[in-house]
Amino acid sequence: MSLKRTALYASHQKLGGKLIEFGGWEMPVQYTSIVDEHQCVRNAAGVFDICHMGEVRVSGAGAAAWLNSVLGNDIRKLAVGQGQYTHLCNERGGTVDDLYAYRIGETEFLLIINASRIEPDVAWFRSHLPAAGSVDLTFTDESAQTGAIAIQGPKVAEFINALFPGASLGGTAVTTASELKKNQIGAWKWNGETIWVARTGYTGEDGFEVVAPVAQIVDLWDKTLEAGRASGIKPSGLGARDTLRTEVCYPLYGHELDENTSPIEAGLGVFVSLDKGEFIGRSVLAAQKANGVTKKSVAFRMIGKAAPPRPGYPIWANDAVVGTVVSGTQSPSLNCGIGLGYVPPTLTEPGTTVEIEIRGRRFPAEIVKKPIYRKA
Amino acid sequence: MSSQVPADLRYAKSHEWVRLSGDVATVGITDHAQHELTDVVFVELPAVGRKVSAGEACAVVESVKTASDIYSPVSGEIIAVNKAVSDNPALVNSEPYAGGNFFQVKLSAPAEVDALLTPAAYSAQIGA
Questions:
Q1: If both were cysteines, with which of A117, A212, A272, B92 could B100 make a disulfide (CB 3.0 to 4.6 Å apart)?
Q2: Helical spans, DSSP H, in chain A
Q3: How confident is the model at residue A376 (pLDDT cuts 50, 70, 90)?
Q4: What CATH number should be reported for the domain holding residue B29?
């Protein structure tokens, strides 16, 4: 299968980006170094190509009720111009995808889904649509026509208003983009076209994600680098995106979540609204919450000198394999090995010592409270 | 990005270099390899006294993103390892041909060195 390329492919090449395969896409893993880009996002600003991610629009009078029957979080909590993190679950409570849902109009929703899950998600959504004509609802997969960039870091607020001048034209009403609060989304015009600017991200830093028609992406990217230059912005790759999200314990689909792992097991129960009414997977998730689970997501850090933990490494306790690492890396912020894994619920207490098997040898690690890294 | 390929070394296709001094070979990874890896955060070295065959994986270098095997380009016995590089893995990035070397091998088949790539051949391989 040939890899898909985003609108920014030529930009990445020009910037010296090192390209790798990710979720069927050819994406930059880094431009200069993962550590440099990581620190730049923690201390200043970085911009990421996230055009590979999917966008789905659901509109009509029946949109909210239908979304509430397939998604775990309660969409009715969203005022116009707000977004929430949520899950698409199967009947077994397993996770088809984790996503962001934005209410961009009274009866209009924008869903941002994972790149590797566009096809299964769209198929899942379509197979669960109400009978044609029975409900006022339009479902559109806009992934191919829509791109996105993430502008992340503590200094982004310095230049976001220069990049997107003036008041919002839709979504949350604000007079400047920097007035958007976490999880709020507003519309601006870019070369005459509507773009959506949301204060959210995947790095644990302040920042914005911008969703726009594909034809606007290169111009948006270039103008972002220009606007952020004085603040020290750098293009940042998927390598830094992964270390940043791992430090703050944000799940990555295919690692912390999959079709056999529920949001409850992943420790994301706060994003599941069990009492909002029926939705797919609800009874299994409710039983897991009431009766407990057999595996639970934990965060850990290596104690002493050890190689970085990697996905797939066995986790040991009391001389037996008790679980598996699902995400692991060297933390550029903490300068030690960190990871996320699944273990039995009895081993999840912070301070518990476990061992990570690395190339046939076991190294001690300590279960820690999430997030692993917290801003001082 | 142009990588350095010193003229006095021999090279393996898998991006290790060999510096010969009598019947002892010092082994490291090339400037090109460290550029590709970036941000080396961990180095695992072989035990002193271990016998290795040419092409055998005997050390590991880890960047933030991945773990990569290091292969001994020559056969023989590991007679010394560079502890400085396991204490400070960033040496692999900053001095790949000096302080960032990995280990020394006492050659058991010195003729193997002649079969390794010349600087010109390695430069051609990496397009330098």
A1: B92
A2: 9-14, 34-43, 63-70, 118-127, 160-163, 217-227, 238-247, 282-291
A3: confident
A4: 2.40.50.100
Indicate the domain borders of chain A: 1-293, 294-376
- Contacts of residue B1 in chain A, CB cutoff 8 Å? 16
Q: Which of A37, A329, A356 to mutate to test the interface with B (most CBs of B within 10 A)?
A: A329
Residues of chain B contacting A310 with CB distance shorter than 8 Å: 66-67
Q: Let me know if residue B50 belongs to a domain.
A: yes
Alpha-carbon gap, residue B44 to B58, rounded angstroms: 9
Residue B126 CA to residue A145 CA, distance in Å, equals 38
CA distance A40 to chain B (A): 15
What's the pLDDT tens digit per position in B94-112? 999 999 999 999 999 999 9
pTM here is: 0.95
Distance from CA of B66 to the nearest CA of A (A): 8
Give a yes or no: residue B62 inside a domain.
yes
Indicate the residue of A239, A306, A307 with minimum beta-carbon distance to B67: A307
Is residue B91 pLDDT above 70, yes or no?
Answer: yes
CATH of domain A294-376: 2.40.30.110
